[in-house]
Each structure stands twice: as C-alpha cells, then as structure tokens.
Amino acid sequence: MARPIAPPDALRCDANAFVAVDVETANGDAGSICQIGFARFANGRLVDNWSWLVHPQTYFSAGNIAIHGIRPGDVTHAPDWATVHERVAEALAGRIVVSHTAFDVTAITRACLIHGRAPISARWLDSVRVARRAFPELKTRGGHGLASLKRHLGLDFAHHDAGEDARAAGQVVAAAVAATGLSVADWLIAAHRPARAVIAEWEASRPLI
Predict the structure, then answer these.
(1) Facing residues of 99 across strands?
(2) CA separation for the pair 21, 6 (Å, rounded)
(3) 55-100 pLDDT per residue, tens
(4) What is residue 10's DSSP assignment?
(5) Strand, helix or coil at 1?
(6) What pTM did the predictor assign?
(7) Under 8 Å CB-to-CB from 47, ≥6 apart: which residues?
(8) Using alpha carbons only, what angle is made at residue 95 by residues 112 and 147, rounded to the nearest 5 degrees?
(9) CB 152 within 8 A of CB 172
(10) Backbone angles phi, psi at 47, to 5 degrees
(11) Interatomic CA distance for residues 79 and 120, integer angstroms
(12) I want to staple 180 with a disulfide (CB 3.0 to 4.6 A). Which of 25, 135, 158, 202 is the partner?
C-alpha cells in the first residue's frame, strides 16, 4: 500500500485544499472499520491517495464481505483502530475533510468511542450535499450516489475500496468547484444552505455567452 507523504505547504492556505476519507466496515456496526482510505487534494488536483487495512477486533458479516471483499484473513496482521488513531488524526484533524454521506464521520467517531480514543475534530464536508447543489439534474437521472456520479462525471474508480472511494468523493468536490466557481471553503457553508438558493446564485454568476 502507498505510504502517506507530508502535504505541501500550499495545502494549508489553499481554499480548495482538503482531504477526502472513506471507510469500509466488517459488519453492521459503523465502528467496525476494516479499511480506511484517504485522498489529499490541493489546487483542485489529487496530490496523494492511500489506504490502510484495520483489524476491527470483531466479526465480519457475510453481507459486508460481499460488498467490499475484505475477509478476516486479510486483516490478521493489520493494526487495530487504537493503533492507527494517531496517524488518522494527523491526516484529518483541523482540515477540511470530505466524505460521501455522513456515514464515514459516524464510523470514525464510533470507532474512537469503542477503542477509547479522542474524537477527531475536523471541518467535515459531505460530498453528497455538494453534488446535490452542483449537479441538480441528477436528481431524476440516477441520483447522487458515487455510482451515478461516476457515470455523469466520468470518474475512474473501483467502488467499495476505501482508497478508491475516497479519491472519488474528492473528485466529486473538485468537479463541483470547477462547475460552480465556489471554493471548497465556500462549500462548507453552501452545502448547508437550501439547494435552490445555492443553485440560483451560482447560475446567476455565470458569464453570459
């Protein structure tokens, strides 16, 4: 697996800098993280992408295995959440962190609780909320799940691999920035405003052809 590298200095002052994250879980408990993936973006471009297997310290359900293909034997020698927590916090804490739906935020918070580690404080941004405002036409054309956005935006990724899905979520936000002119920092607020108002504002700002 790829190793994380230190972010460039520009990442800290770039209004379009963020880290995207995704997790896979062993069973129906959101805290049973068995893989976590990351993708760093700066100036609208991917600069780093990696993932780690995590030992969930619990059982794997057949349904979850069918989704992501990770089995108990794959994580036998992987660290548990208590062990990776510090490295995860270093990657995410204090940054704009993108996830596709709030599930990943819930899972990370739940894993911290289970393993007695401090919650990770970040500026969370839901790429589904962003996509609903940046690409409203998809509401009746497949919705705003990653599979639909993959077709609409021409994304190239393998669904249900945490590293791949993290990259895809980041690419959705990068595409929204390009389509609307709103920065990632702007989207921290815009994603929680009424969709119609956000759409009307950025469409009105488009230059007339």
Answers:
(1) 126
(2) 16
(3) 999 999 999 999 999 999 999 999 999 999 999 999 999 999 999 9
(4) G
(5) coil
(6) 0.89
(7) 7, 8, 11, 40, 41
(8) 80
(9) no
(10) -120, -15
(11) 18
(12) 202
